[in-house]
Each structure stands twice: as structure tokens, then as C-alpha cells.
Amino acid sequence: MPTDFFNRHRATLEQAVSALQQRGYWSPYNESPSPRFYGEGAAEAGRAAYEARLERPFLFTPEQAGGDRWVGAEVSPYGPPLGIRYPAPDLDRLLPSMQRAAASWREAGPQVWAGVALEIVQRLNARSFEIAHAVQHTTGQAFTMAFQAGGPHAQDRALEAIACAWQQLQLIPAEARWEKPQGKHAPLVMRKTWRIVPRGIGLVIGCCTFPTWNSYPGLFANLATGNAVIVKPHPGAILPLAITVQVAREVLAEAGFAPDVVTLAAHDASDTGLARTLALRHEIGLIDFTGSSANGDWLEERARQARVLTEKSGINQIIIDSTDNLAGMVQNIALSLALYSGQMCTTPQNIYIPRDGVRTPQGQLSFVEVSQAIVQAVAHLTTDSAKAVELLGAIQNEAVLQRIELARGKGQVLLESTALVHPQFPGARVRTPLVMLARRNEAITEEYFGPISFIVPVDDTATAIALAQRIATDQGALTLSAYTTDATLRQGLQHAAADAGVALSLNLTGGVLVNQSAAFSDYHGTGANPAANCTLTDADFVAARYRVVQTREPVASTTTA
Amino acid sequence: MPTDFFNRHRATLEQAVSALQQRGYWSPYNESPSPRFYGEGAAEAGRAAYEARLERPFLFTPEQAGGDRWVGAEVSPYGPPLGIRYPAPDLDRLLPSMQRAAASWREAGPQVWAGVALEIVQRLNARSFEIAHAVQHTTGQAFTMAFQAGGPHAQDRALEAIACAWQQLQLIPAEARWEKPQGKHAPLVMRKTWRIVPRGIGLVIGCCTFPTWNSYPGLFANLATGNAVIVKPHPGAILPLAITVQVAREVLAEAGFAPDVVTLAAHDASDTGLARTLALRHEIGLIDFTGSSANGDWLEERARQARVLTEKSGINQIIIDSTDNLAGMVQNIALSLALYSGQMCTTPQNIYIPRDGVRTPQGQLSFVEVSQAIVQAVAHLTTDSAKAVELLGAIQNEAVLQRIELARGKGQVLLESTALVHPQFPGARVRTPLVMLARRNEAITEEYFGPISFIVPVDDTATAIALAQRIATDQGALTLSAYTTDATLRQGLQHAAADAGVALSLNLTGGVLVNQSAAFSDYHGTGANPAANCTLTDADFVAARYRVVQTREPVASTTTA
């Protein structure tokens, strides 16, 4: 049965490995929530499945080992509490049970690991609508985004991680005959075998904005390398990962494994210690973390028994030098700032514009003209509330609102952040983006996560590049965007981006936003600046998750094969 | 010119990558110091080159940046001081100079990195005799071993690291066209490029027993991924790495790079702080360390700005259950204990023998009979001083002698360690191996690095396996050797070895010793127990050394190609 899963998905896996090496566009999971791809009634069934989960306990069948307590107090950013209670983990029962479950899982080997992992992703894809509603009502993303980013795009990242692990494991032979010539004497002959040994239970710590997209790479890289996984969601976004864990447990059980290979460690916001307690447990050999720099740095510093892979905070920046498409540039930037109210780790925050203006096909536009074009484009996106909420979504939590207030004191308000009423969810927490003019000569060197951006006047583009490089190097950054028609500056930007270890997007004026990162093509994070110590997904991301242990024996002396 | 190096060695590189995936026997560097392979007069020329280095300053041409001080006080374990003085590094001048040198090196790209690295290894191979004398008179290895382990075998490990890096870098395309369909609309088209960005200056910290073999993997993995490297040798074994650095600088200069891409940080034994000072410098992004657990753990704990890869201490063990070749087993074990006076990180220390004896073709032999067979075999190896010294070599330093004294208090002496007079070097520090009977019920859980082993009586083989697993898990181990003709025990041993993350050798009775680890086939260390946090050489060992930084741009908006 486990091998059936592998054979069922083998073609997909091979395409995925090939896509990873080509890095062109590829995805097996359609991002369109159309019945043409997901079937008639899939949308309605998914909504019904989501609604059936509300206001009741979330049950695993069979139950997850340990825990008679119930936790969970998710409240939709669109208003109502979800009313779902999850089994709380009793670590002293759950982790030993996971170790028992892991014992046969680790023996199963790469084909079974890949097959089971791929089947889980396939079933998650079939539940994309249900997961989309769960993502919408925990993160605040608008529905379409919740479907795409929480469903097929997250599934792409999962498949990418499985493919990357498979690619690496395929480089290691299972056995070899080693025959060393000895001149006139008989050669030395040894039979050698190599075994992939997973590194331990993996802890995956989710965030409240992209619970699936950011957690799937670690979760599935762990499974594809034979590790058991405990998933600790953010208390504000448990449901999408609880459904994920439930699906994983079903597939594991069907494949003949104890479902405690994958477990959920839900907790209330008041129980702030669970992640750290878990992270220091000796059973935990791997930690995948998405969240704040404070928590990520703590894990890197303290969880010394584990390999810790983190995605943390950073300051993303846009440098405007010149453009051959002013309208496209302005529209693209405005969309980048507004999408999901800036609650993406890839959203730009600082926008550098030269004091003496920007060269465009319409001539040299002044600093004020370019700033105002951006401000007006953002304002224009939010004039119609009904359309705006489909772009903005809702604000995930109150801390974002407080950050808007804080940012308002950091310069001059160019575009005020205002509350919008959501036509469908009157209780939704919706705010339009705040655009600030940064105080003169003050570099913005703190992250303001949320719908907050700063337009920063600079003496010239070279100054902007140097400033952006320094901020990315010191504070971290996942994205850097720049607009220039100058070939020399383009080279300088590429040098600066390489030195700061930040992905560079040039002259985005069309349908791709700097915020967006496509699996199988775009590396997400580089591991080369403080925003992340790893990337999604490369060899370093997967090769830490297993070890190779060899046995060798002279062929002549072997008494049994 | 740099590309010439790549093309010159391309076939070797491709064979090496293939060997790495097959893991059968392969080596392009002959381990025999015969004129048939190294040419007539090579031995004499190498000796002359070594002797010409004695009693004078070691000069780099061009000079290494920084430093007017001279250091170095190596004394041969065979007697005389070497009298060589090396330029001491002035870090505040040397590291900035390295960064300047690194700037063009990092731009050169994988082909140039590989080509230059391969040319360096090729030239090192041509200097194997000179390096052999340098290794002999710093480590104390006998000449033949110094030639093999310090020359071709170390070069194999260097080539393996280059091949492993190349294999990984080949998985990353330089550029791609990303074309995402948009239904009835025109597709989104982006041009993407990826650049390999080295992680920073690599610090390679050498040891005094295998200065080249243990340092080359880190050194050459760094070069092959575009990093500059500062090599800090053990103060007792500077010369082999100084020659290596000199050769590297020559090749770099010929290829048009500043030679400070590779530098030497020599120091006197009294200057104990240099390694730690260097390790915490912000310029250092990678550290490869071979040495004590205390120093390795300190680096892992403290050098947080760098990726730290360590090989540390451990306790290697032999489990004897049964054998179909008693004489072969006893002889193989005796050679393992005697080779280089046990001064290998892979030398067995604890030998477990069941109290009720061992099943052999000669019937059940008692614990005492098997112990005595081993003791007599070791004693026999050292009866003829002239032959013995070619196996034992010399004791590298006084601490090893003190450890022999310490170990003598830990049980009953079965075979006394005695001084031998070296027929060629009367001042040589030569000792025969000490074999102890461990105190009853006392597990030997400390490392006694040197010609020291403990025979440990155990109730049965299952007890021995459990004990060995626990010691390897807690204290670390690079090797585990076992003798059994029982298929069930063989499986139990493989499970225990996998759980303890230690390489297992079964039934070694012939020409392969457990101490020996062959490049392209045997992983050295696993990274899965405290003896090492990495392995030589796998994807994890090389993938930490670089990051990938991408640029993407819409194809339509590009004004310059």
C-alpha cells in the first residue's frame, strides 16, 4: 500500500524534480478555484466542510496520544469566533508516542516517505476550498488569496520540498561493491550499504498569516526524509494546520503507520511557553520556524540539540531610479502595498525616491509627483469598499493596528489609514494602507509589519542602493525591488543584492508583484541575511534532516548474504 | 587561464562526481610512493625540498598581507626541532586584504572555482613526497603512512569535496525563462538569473595528527564554492598546511587572482587565543574544525555568525561475539590498535568480549584466551623495533604520554606500554600500545586518545551492543567494529549503529582496518552523534557554504538584454 502511493505519484515527483532543476514555471495544482479544475460543487462542499467544523471540538480519529485538556480560541479577523476546541498536547505522553510511531516510519525508506507525503499533498489539494475558508477566517486573507496561497501555492511548496529531498536522497546509493586493487595480490573487496537515518522529531512552528504556505516546506521536507513531525500552530491560526495534520494522519494510518508520526500541538495565546518548552526537548532534532526575529533568534541561540531553520522579520525595500512604464510601475507598487494589507513577509516597506525626481517616458518627474502618483494609486485601490476588501482582506490582529498608530508618528502622513466596512462581514477588521513620508535624513531601519510604508527621499540612486544594502544586511530582507532603465545601475543593484543576500526584482510593472514567490522557481529567502537562516527550498534546507549511516563488510568473510 | 584549469581537470571532476554516486573504489592519486607512479627521483627531490625548508623562514611569494612577527616552534616527534619560522597574521590587515581578494574570486563562478581548486590538488599530488616528510616530522606518522594519509588520501578527500560541491552547484541553473499561462490573456514572462554567493571567509582549523587529511575537505569545499579561506594550523603541525597554502597561492596568482584568497594563520602554542579570536570575527562565515570536543563545542556554542562544522572526540569500540576467522580477527584488531600508535580519531578504544567467551572455528574460546590472543598479537607487532616503528610512528606530543600513565590506573595492565628506540631517529618518542583490562562492571566512557585500549568483559553480546550504542550516543564515536557470524546479531548491530549514528564495520579480518576511511566511498563521521556535527563529505557539508541570490525581471519591460 505505501508503495502504491509512490507509484501513483511517481510521474508528478519526477516532473517536480525536473521543474526544480529548470526553475521555469510549473505547478500541478491549479490556482483557480474554478469548477473546471476542482469539480462542480467543490466550492460548496468545501464551505460546508469548513462550517461543520465551527463551534465544536476538533477530533482526530484515531485520537492523538496524550492530553485531556482542550484549547483554542481563534477569532476570525472577519468577526466571529470560530468556537473550535483542539486537544492540548501532553508532551510527556505525546512525544514518547511519537517516538514509538517514528520507529517503523524511519525504517520505511525514501520511496515510502515520498509516496505518503505526496498522497497527503494530493488530498490537501482536494480539500483546498475547506482549507481556504480556514485560512481566510484565521489569517484575514480575502477568500481568493486564501484559496491560492493557502491551497495550491502552499501545496506547490510542499511538493517542492518533497522533490528537493528526493533529489538529494537519490544521490546516495543504497549499496555498493568496493574493490580496491592490490597489485599482484587479490583485490580487497567490501560490500557497503548506506541507510538514511532521520534526525529526530521535527517541530514545525507556524505563523498566523500564512499557516500552510510557510509550514508546509518544513513539514513535508521532514516527512520525505523519514522524520516524525509535531506541528505547533500559532494560536490565532490553528485550523488550517489542524486539518493538514488530520489529513496526514489519515494517510499514514492507511499506509499502515501509527498516525502519531504527525501530531498537532495546539495551545492558547495565554500559554506562551509551549513553543520554547517543545523546542528544548531532547526528542526534537529539527525546528522549522516562521515568525518574529526575537523568537527565531531565541531558537537559534537556545535549541542547540536541534538544527534550527528560521524565517524571521526583515525590511523589504523599493528603489526607484527611472522607468519606461510609469503607470505600470505605480500600479504594481500600489498593489504590492495593498495586497493582504501588507501582512506578507515579502511586502515592501521603504520606498526610495531621488529628491531630484525620476526619469520617465513623460520626462523627469519630481519627487513629489512620483510620491503622489503612488499615493493616489493606493488610494484608488480602496475607493470602492467591496472591491477593496477582496484585495486588502482583514487585519489579522490588534498588534497590527497599534503598529499603524506607532508609524504615524514617524514622519508625515501622505495617505491616511482608515477603517472600511466589509459588505459581507460587518465585524471585519479592515484598514486601508498608511503611506508615510519618512523624516528627512532618517533611514527607516525598523520593521512595521502591516499596511505601512515609508517613502524615503534620497540624494540619488547610488545612495538608495547603499542604504538598501546596509538595511538588508543589518536588519534582514526577503525582497528588494528596483526600477531602472540604466544598465550600469542594474549591475550595481545586482551586486548590492548579492552582497546583502536578498532576492532582487527589477522593473515589475505587470502581473507579478514583488510579494509573490513561486515554488519551483523563486527561492524564498536566501539564508544570507538576518531575515532567514535558510531558503525555500534548496539542498541545505533538506540535507540537514537526515544522516547517512553505513555498514561495510569484507565480501569474502560474509557468512550470510 | 582559469578556464584552462577547469578544462584540464574536467574529466577527473566528472569521474569524481560519478565515483561519489557509485561509492565503489576510486582514486586518481596513487597511494604507492613508487617511482612508477611519481617518477624517478621524485622521492629524493621531495626529501630535498623538505630539508631545504628547515632552519629558515617560510616565505610566501608574494607575501601574505599583514604581519611582521614570526612564529613557529615545531619539533619533530622524531627528535629535532624543525627551526622553521612563519609569518604571523595581523588580523586587522590580513582579513581586510582577504576580503579584497575575495571580491573578484567570488565573481568568478563555479567553473573557475572548481578549476583552480583541482589544479591546486594536482600540484599538491606532485609534491606528495615533500608533504610526506612534513607530515611525518610534525605528526609523528611513519613515512609510508605520512605519504599515503598526508598525500594521496588527503588529496582524494580534497577532490571528493570539490566534486560534491560541483555536483550540488550543477543542480542550480544560471538562468531560466518563467512563463506562466494566464488563460485567454498573454502569459506572464520573466527572465530569472541565479547567482552563487559564497558565505564569507572560511576558517579551517587543523589538528596535529592529520593536518592535511582533516583540513582538505573544508579547505577545498570552501574554494569550490567561491569562498576565501584562512587556514589556522595546529602549532605542532604547521608545515604541511603552510606548503598547501603556498601551492594554493601560486595557482591563484597564475589564474589572475590575489593570492590572499588563501592565507595561513600560524601561531605559537603559547598563543592559545588565536583560534577563538578568529572564530568570532565578523568576516568569518564558515568554520571547519578538527580537534577536541571542548574546543569544538565552544565554537558551536559561540561562533554564532558562522556555520560551524566540527569533528571532535569520540570513543570507538569493538564488539566481539563470534568469528569464522580467529587469526584474521586478532591480527586485524592488533593492527588497528598499533597503527600510528592509536593516534587516529578512528582507532578503537573499548573492546567488548563476553565473559563466557567467543565462538570460533576452533570451538568456544574463553574470555581470557581471546584477550590474550589480542594482547599477544599486539606484542608480536612490536617485537622488532625496526619494523615496529614503521607501524607505530612516533607519539605526537607529551600529553599522549601522560594519558598512557593515566590509563594505567583504570584497571589491570594486560600489555605494558614501553619505549622503543627508533633505529634511524634516536630522539624519536616511540611507545608500544598499552592494553588494559577494564575494571569489572566499569564502562569506559572517557576518550584516551593514543596507544591505549581497554578490554571490557561483558555478560553477553546484547549487553555489549547496548553499552556501545549508549557510549556512542552520549560520548560520540566515529567507528564501531563488530565480529559476529550470527545473522540476528548482525541486524541488531546495524540497528544500534543507525540509532547511535556511527559507521559500522563488520568482520574485518583482512587488509582493511576499521581506522581507515576511503574517500568517494566511506563517509567519515555521520554528524549524528557528539563526535562530529557533519560528515565527510555529503550535501550538508557543502551546501552550507554558499547561498543563491536571484534576480527576476519581466521580459517585456527589459530595455537592455
TrEMBL record, chains A, B:
This is NAD-dependent aldehyde dehydrogenase protein. Residues 89-470 form the Aldehyde dehydrogenase domain. PANTHER family: DELTA-1-PYRROLINE-5-CARBOXYLATE DEHYDROGENASE 1, ISOFORM A-RELATED, DELTA-1-PYRROLINE-5-CARBOXYLATE DEHYDROGENASE 2, ISOFORM A-RELATED. Coiled coil: none annotated. One of its GO terms (biological process) is L-proline catabolic process to L-glutamate. It comes from the Bacteria. It holds the Pfam family Aldedh. Keywords: NAD, Oxidoreductase. The keyword Oxidoreductase applies. GO terms for cellular component: cytoplasmic side of plasma membrane. It comes from Herbaspirillum seropedicae (strain SmR1). Its EC number is 1.2.1.-. GO terms for molecular function: L-glutamate gamma-semialdehyde dehydrogenase activity. InterPro entries: Ald_DH/histidinol_DH (IPR016161), Ald_DH_C (IPR016163), Ald_DH_N (IPR016162), Aldehyde_DH_dom (IPR015590), PaaN_2 (IPR011975), Proline_metab_enzyme (IPR050485).
